[in-house]
Amino acid sequence: MSTKAKNSTSPNNSRSVQHLISRILVSGIIVLSILGCEQDNAITDLQTNTPIFDLDLFEQNIIDYINAGGDTPVGWAYTISKDGNLSRSNAFGKARTAADGTLNFTPQKEINVASVSKFYTAIAAMQLLEANNLTIEDKINTWLPDTWVKGPGVSELTFKDLLKHESGLQSTNTNFDTTLGYEGLQNCIQTGVVNSTTRNYLNVNFALFRVLIPSLWSNLEGSPAIDIENDANTQFMYLLYMQQHVFDPLSLPLVGCVPEDRETATLYYNVNNPNNGGNGQYYGSWNNKSGGGGYFMTTMEMAKVNAYFEHTEVLVSNEQKAIMKLHRLGMDTADPIDEIHGNYYSKAGSIGTSNDPTTSQGVQTQIVMFPFNGIDCVVVMNSQGVTLQGTISLRQMIYNAYNNAWVQP
Description:
Helix content: 25-40%
Distance between the termini: 46 Å
Largest sheet: 6 strands, antiparallel
CATH architecture of the largest domain: 3-Layer(aba) Sandwich
Order of helices and strands: HHEHEEEEHHHHHHHEHEHHEEEEHE
Structural class: alpha+beta
Strand order of the largest sheet: 4-3-2-10-9-8
């Protein structure tokens, strides 16, 4: 309508313009009326005491809850993002104590992210399943090395079974070099499905993707030559795919499963080590056992993956993301009791030298996404044995910090 008024040469042009202006003014009044109603509704919502999320309180809760037991981690850091934008970050303590040559911990300091690696591996797996016109319900059998002997039930295993830890495979979560190395994976497949196919958290389920991801990649036009019968080649190609298709798109160069130089790398402690002068643990290369763990990343880098996964389609399509969330692929299981503001999506990581909280040295990591109000969070610490407020679970502590950050207006 406005275009016709502008181009008209009719003697009634001025009258048409006046008419148009009148309509615009009327429309403006209607719009203002709608806005006024929305504002009234907002006031009404406030009057009904609807809780409001307090970002500052969430941050303070995290700090307070981690320090609640008086045995602060040797070194730790956190990030909080809102709608994909970094809002808060900080770090405390040491990456290396005086016994190992004092070095401060920072959000830019690399740490072994442990099983948070599974989340990144799941992203890559979903990319390749989509690229190969496959679904999580498809069988893994044809994507395994031809020379591997397939034990009972392997022919029926699906990608979903691995991604949900429901494979029924036989393995242990100890002696990773043996159980998660190439020969260990081969032996696991030969033993086959011998356990219940209910959820049983095993690193081998994701370590197998160190072979499956190169295998799926090799089927795509233009992919590099990949020999999945060769251990070194599967290691290299898994890491190469992850770099090119998970980290490079986010401008995160040189992300891998090899730590910084031994003299400057983050070390891993028990909270009691600074009191007794004990040395920290050093984690070497995880290339030979990667897939389910072993990436060395900064807290900031982890936050960036969260942001791009949750708020864009750079890593996976919205459809694939929905599937991952529905089945918690590469994520922790749901916790309906504590997920009181929509669904929470998280992944924990932990490596320790023993089950004794007073002596075990290791790392704890946690990522959490709260889609209800666009909050993403990362917390990492290079210590075990920390007393958290009301729980021994880092995930539970973050959930509590988030839930308790909703306040009455």
